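Subject: Protein record for review, amino acid sequence with backbone structure tokens
How to read it: Take the token row as a discrete description of the fold.
Enclosed: The protein record, placed directly beneath this head.
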Amino acid sequence: MAMVRIARDELFKGKRQAKDFDFGEDTAKVFDDMLGRSIPFYSEIQRMIGEMAADFAVPGTNLYDLGCSTCTTFLQIDPLVARGVKFIGIDYSESMIMKAKEKLAGGAITHPYEVSCSDLNNGISIENASVVIMNLVLQFVRPLRRTRVINEIASGINNDGCLILVEKVLSADSLINRLFIKYYYELKKRNGYSEMEIAQKREALENVLIPYHYFENRDMLVECGFRHCEMFFRWYNFCGMIAVK
């Protein structure tokens, strides 16, 4: 099995011209390291996603990862999910899809799969799905398009299927929100990011990553037709939810 080298994330290490964050070639090269060092308990979140996906995935149906990036999730859940489930990965970044294909080709994945480029802001077609995963993705969809995206996902999920949603969230109280952000930046420092890297990435994400409050996400899921919505993970300003149709 071929090994794909994980490059260290140093995108924001030097002084750079201010511009919005993007998921292009430079980001794709270091994205796996970026996630591991930037997302609290990332490996545990992946493990939890795998457990839930295994219990909801039904042979003869599709499992979608929307905003699949480099398809780390598929490799993580492949040993857990029943045979007869097809994996479908969608991401708007061609660079991410190229990296995903490289990883999947060398990762001995056992499920049938397909990955393709598409922008969720333009809508999404979901068919015969028992599981849909959105891991830190909805926050990058333009707010005016989010309800439509969730509606389209709900319409394509079979009864008793689920949407697994992980997001950065806002707190209702401004003081607590500031504290949670401070604790998050302290985590990034512990993981080797400098003050400059943290500040420059924060500025780059300002107009790109737009979080909702937890209750806004929960209410949207319920209004779009999901019967149950439960929080399965919370770490300060990060939240995981599972919604069952």
